[in-house]
């Protein structure tokens, strides 16, 4: 029987999971993908096989699945019923923040988990929920191999000028620096480029990961050069409910003059800002596109403007670009937003192919465009599965090597 990798991507009210079969030296084959969403309110378990055929669609009373830990248990029960006797060789987890100490995926033990829990203040919307299933599985199955795969890891290795803030050196040494996020998504795109668009794979590419969380990354010869996100997931582009770039003086003003406390400020910046804050209507681009309200148009105009502005900044960081790649939910599903971004990049020499964009083609720029534009779906779960398999195999080789002495 092929080795099984279970991938877990947990959020505050949902948990996504995928099963991959490891075949041969490195081939990974997706066999099923599912999620539990509405945790604590309207829990619903859904899963499909690799061809998209439904395997389960079950709802639960809110009290039956009140939190992520319980949801993890339900997923485990369902998987054991679905695949009796099958035991994963390892479980891979998406973890938002690796801090200054973790620049590559790592097998999780008590010390690693404790270190990652200390990073919760740097990613309060993600880190605690990413770690909860790891803790739950560790308590129930202490010998299970679990691998943490970090959204910050792909961005390690930036030049100093890209990673530092203009603050005293001791704070940098403590870890106050620019990290960047969505690294698993960017790493997947960098791996996919030689196959999808080999003519730009070794060039200078800006990738825009545009979803409920949004950021952009400058990639040169397959490596991250700079990113719009920084110390936390707040910087850079406006997002569904997060503010994006903001003058630190605004925060000082809110603290000193408006009576905000730290928790109130955190709620404002993470939950009440972004597209929701600007529009007063919704954090969902689909709702804003469908609305005639002027505030909805303002929110979308601001979002596109900031993407265009950051595109210019990242192009400057690489002294020019060869291509723009659009990925993640908004990029993959909104021809209108894609078109607006590409038209705004005409000054770079990008020429939009309107028909290709409407058709959802991989390349959406004209053949004579100096800067090409692409839409490439991301697959963070596949990236996690790859890393998890490698960590497990490296660990197995190391253990067997010890046994020979």
Structural overview:
The chain has an eight-stranded mixed sheet with strand order 5-4-3-2-1-6-8-7, sandwiched between helices. Strands 11-10-9-12-13 form a five-stranded mixed sheet, with helices on both faces. The longest helix is centred in the C-terminal third of the chain and has 24 residues, at 294-317. The mean pLDDT is 92. It starts with a strand and ends with a helix. It is globular, with a radius of gyration of 22 Å. It is built from 15 helices and 13 strands. By secondary structure, the chain is an alpha/beta fold. It has helices at 68-82, 110-117, 127-140, 160-163, 169-173, 183-196, 248-256, 262-271, 274-279, 285-290, 294-317, 328-333, 335-344, 354-359, 380-403; strands at 3-10, 15-23, 27-37, 44-49, 54-59, 90-95, 106-107, 146-150, 204-210, 214-220, 223-227, 323-327, 372-375.
Structural class: alpha/beta
CATH topology tier name of the largest domain = Nucleotidyltransferase, domain 5
The CATH homologous superfamily name of the largest domain equals ATPase, nucleotide binding domain
User: What's the main sheet like?
Assistant: 8 strands, mixed
> How big a fraction of the residues is strand?
15-25%
Terminal residue distance: 30 Å
- Percentage of residues in helical conformation: 25-40%
Shape, please?
globular
The unreliable regions are: none
By CATH, the architecture of the largest domain is named 2-Layer Sandwich
Taking strands numbered 1, 2, ... along the chain, how are they ordered across the largest sheet? 5-4-3-2-1-6-8-7
**Helix/strand order:** EEEEEHEEHHEHHHEEEHHHHHEHHHEH
Can you count the helices? 15
């Amino acid at each position: 029987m092929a080795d099984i990798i279970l991938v877990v991507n947990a959020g505050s009210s949902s948990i996504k999971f995928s099963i991959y079969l490891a075949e041969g030296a490195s081939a990974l084959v997706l066999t099923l993908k599912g999620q539990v969403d509405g945790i604590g309110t309207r829990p619903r378990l859904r899963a499909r096989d690799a061809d998209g055929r439904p395997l389960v669609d079950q709802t639960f009373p809110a009290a039956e699945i009140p939190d992520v830990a319980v949801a993890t248990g339900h997923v485990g029960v369902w998987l054991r019923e679905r695949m009796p006797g099958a035991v994963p060789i390892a479980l891979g987890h998406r973890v938002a923040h690796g801090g200054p100490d973790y620049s590559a995926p790592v097998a999780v033990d008590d010390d690693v988990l404790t270190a990652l829990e200390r990073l919760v203040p740097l990613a309060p919307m993600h880190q605690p929920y990413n770690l909860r299933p790891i803790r739950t599985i560790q308590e129930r199955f202490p010998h299970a191999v679990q691998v943490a795969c970090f959204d910050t890891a792909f961005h390690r290795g930036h030049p100093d000028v890209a990673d530092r803030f203009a603050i005293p050196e001791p704070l940098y040494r403590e870890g106050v620096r620019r990290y960047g996020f969505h690294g698993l998504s960017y790493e997947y795109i960098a791996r996919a480029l030689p196959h999808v668009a080999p003519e730009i794979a070794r060039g200078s590419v800006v990738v825009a990961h545009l979803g409920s969380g949004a950021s952009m990354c400058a990639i040169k010869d397959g490596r991250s050069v700079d990113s719009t996100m920084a110390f936390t997931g707040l910087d850079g582009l406006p997002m569904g409910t997060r503010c994006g770039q903001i003058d630190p003086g605004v925060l000082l003003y809110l603290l000193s003059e408006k009576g905000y406390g730290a928790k109130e400020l955190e709620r404002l910046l993470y939950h009440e800002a972004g597209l929701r804050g600007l529009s007063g209507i919704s954090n969902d681009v689909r709702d804003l596109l469908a609305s005639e309200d002027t505030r909805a148009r303002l929110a979308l105009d601001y979002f596109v403007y900031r993407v265009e502005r950051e595109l210019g900044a990242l192009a400057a960081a690489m002294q020019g670009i060869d291509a723009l790649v659009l990925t993640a939910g908004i990029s993959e599903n909104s021809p209108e937003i894609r078109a607006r971004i590409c038209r705004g990049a005409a000054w770079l020499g990008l020429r939009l192919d309107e028909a290709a964009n409407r058709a959802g083609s991989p390349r959406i720029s004209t053949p004579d465009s100096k800067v090409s534009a692409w839409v490439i779906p991301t697959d963070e779960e596949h990236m996690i599965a790859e890393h998890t398999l490698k960590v497990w195999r490296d660990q197995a080789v190391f253990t067997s090597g010890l046994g020979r002495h």
